[in-house]
């Protein structure tokens, strides 16, 4: 009985000093924690909370504040015009260009893929090292297998020996060709042409004629082209200044430009992305004949044929009615 009285006195003294019994405090603590968890759940469930429950759309959980995307520059849709110059560098008129060939936006990934693939295809792969079977000699075993105290060897042309074959060396049988689709290659060509036209690195010459093959006449022609806006700095380069494209091969013109180091000349049908990347500028001679070839790369001729066929069919149907 005395022990019970002592326990009751302790509890009463604890309550008088502000402490509560273990059971009562636990109940109040549970109630307090419940209110706190309820308020936390309310915060999490609010739409403003990043982890809150979405209101209506289930995808709003992943909606975050993002920076506005920068719109990519698209290809030019309207018609393009360029000046046409004479052989003496005098403006003689203008020519309209198709935006499908000269108005495309720059695509560095495409140009890099095509140029690297073409350069790899052009690689000859003549490096060749002889292996132990190709080196002359070494048909006899240098010494017997056992009993000499020396390391065993079967041929003096082993890769371990001086004068022996090469292990894992370059072989001429290796093929470096890389396939490039026709449409991809054509798109890369048109992309480079569009960039050069935008940067003012393409000039159109109405005609280029030489009575006889003379380098002196070709140099005077290039000096006259320096009068064209933007060409003085480009043609002043010592290497890879310009590539001149002709609609067909002309002997006097080719021989006149042959000995000029910073100028290359070729037919328009042989133009390719590697050549355009190698040379800074491009001169298209007789654009009335040369441009249809470039347009054929963009598939414009096929579109024109389809349009004419559609017009014919519509006219025939009208006549039948």
From TrEMBL:
<dbReference type="InterPro" id="IPR023574">
    <property type="entry name" value="Ribosomal_uL4_dom_sf"/>
</dbReference>
<dbReference type="GO" id="GO:0003735">
    <property type="term" value="F:structural constituent of ribosome"/>
</dbReference>
<keyword id="KW-0699">rRNA-binding</keyword>
<dbReference type="GO" id="GO:1990904">
    <property type="term" value="C:ribonucleoprotein complex"/>
</dbReference>
<feature type="compositionally biased region" description="Polar residues">
    <location>
        <begin position="1"/>
        <end position="16"/>
    </location>
</feature>
<feature type="compositionally biased region" description="Basic residues">
    <location>
        <begin position="141"/>
        <end position="155"/>
    </location>
</feature>
<comment type="function">
    <text>One of the primary rRNA binding proteins, this protein initially binds near the 5'-end of the 23S rRNA. It is important during the early stages of 50S assembly. It makes multiple contacts with different domains of the 23S rRNA in the assembled 50S subunit and ribosome.</text>
</comment>
<feature type="region of interest" description="Disordered">
    <location>
        <begin position="121"/>
        <end position="176"/>
    </location>
</feature>
<keyword id="KW-0687">Ribonucleoprotein</keyword>
<dbReference type="Pfam" id="PF00573">
    <property type="entry name" value="Ribosomal_L4"/>
</dbReference>
<dbReference type="GO" id="GO:0006412">
    <property type="term" value="P:translation"/>
</dbReference>
<comment type="similarity">
    <text>Belongs to the universal ribosomal protein uL4 family.</text>
</comment>
<comment type="function">
    <text>Forms part of the polypeptide exit tunnel.</text>
</comment>
<dbReference type="InterPro" id="IPR013005">
    <property type="entry name" value="Ribosomal_uL4-like"/>
</dbReference>
<protein>
    <recommendedName>
        <fullName>Large ribosomal subunit protein uL4</fullName>
    </recommendedName>
</protein>
<dbReference type="GO" id="GO:0019843">
    <property type="term" value="F:rRNA binding"/>
</dbReference>
<dbReference type="GO" id="GO:0005840">
    <property type="term" value="C:ribosome"/>
</dbReference>
<dbReference type="InterPro" id="IPR002136">
    <property type="entry name" value="Ribosomal_uL4"/>
</dbReference>
<keyword id="KW-0689">Ribosomal protein</keyword>
<feature type="region of interest" description="Disordered">
    <location>
        <begin position="1"/>
        <end position="75"/>
    </location>
</feature>
<comment type="subunit">
    <text>Part of the 50S ribosomal subunit.</text>
</comment>
<keyword id="KW-0694">RNA-binding</keyword>
């Amino acid at each position: 009985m005395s022990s019970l009285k002592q326990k009751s006195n302790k509890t009463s003294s604890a309550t008088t000093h502000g402490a509560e019994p273990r059971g009562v405090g636990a109940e109040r603590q549970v109630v307090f924690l419940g209110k706190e968890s309820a308020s936390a759940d309310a915060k999490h469930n609010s739409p403003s909370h990043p982890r809150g429950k979405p209101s209506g759309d289930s995808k709003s959980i992943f909606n975050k504040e993002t920076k506005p995307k920068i719109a990519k520059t698209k290809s030019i849709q309207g018609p393009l015009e360029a000046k046409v110059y004479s052989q003496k560098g005098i403006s003689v008129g203008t020519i309209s260009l198709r935006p499908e060939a000269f108005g495309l936006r720059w695509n560095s990934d495409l140009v890099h893929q095509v140029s690297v693939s073409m350069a790899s295809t052009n690689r000859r792969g003549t490096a060749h090292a002889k292996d132990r079977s190709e080196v002359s000699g070494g048909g006899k075993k240098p010494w017997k297998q056992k009993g000499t105290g020396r390391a065993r060897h079967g041929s003096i042309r082993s890769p371990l020996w001086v004068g022996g074959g090469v292990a894992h060396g370059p072989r001429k049988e290796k093929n470096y060709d890389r396939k490039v689709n026709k449409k991809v290659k054509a798109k890369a060509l048109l992309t480079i042409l569009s960039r050069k036209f935008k940067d003012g690195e393409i000039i159109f010459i109405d005609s280029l004629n030489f009575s006889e093959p003379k380098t002196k006449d070709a140099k005077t022609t290039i000096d006259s082209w320096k009068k064209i806006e933007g060409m003085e700095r480009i043609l002043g380069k010592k290497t890879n200044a310009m590539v001149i494209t002709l609609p067909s091969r002309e002997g006097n013109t080719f021989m006149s430009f042959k000995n000029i180091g910073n100028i290359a000349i070729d037919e328009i049908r042989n133009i390719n992305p590697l050549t355009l990347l190698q040379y800074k500028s491009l001169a298209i001679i007789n654009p009335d004949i040369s441009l249809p070839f470039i347009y054929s790369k963009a598939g414009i001729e096929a579109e024109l044929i389809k349009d004419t066929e559609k017009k014919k069919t519509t006219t025939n149907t009208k006549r039948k009615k």
